[in-house]
Fold this sequence. Notes:
Helices cover 65% and strands 0% of the residues. It is built from three helices and no strands. The longest helix has 19 residues, at 49-67.
Amino acid sequence: RTNPGGSASSAAKALETLGLAANATGADIKARYKELVKRHHPDANGGDRGSEERFRDVLQAYRVLKQAGLC
């Protein structure tokens, strides 16, 4: 990595968390985010802790991508 811990590697990790390629568009990111939030929301999973953890990861990944200006 050329920029460990920097925004580029954070964005790459966030895209990976969402299951998207590095060339994903803003529309791709938003669509995938909405899909994953619906799937892993605690209300949709009866309070399943594993799903709740994944939900938090998805929220954080989207926040990182938004701050990086990718969506």
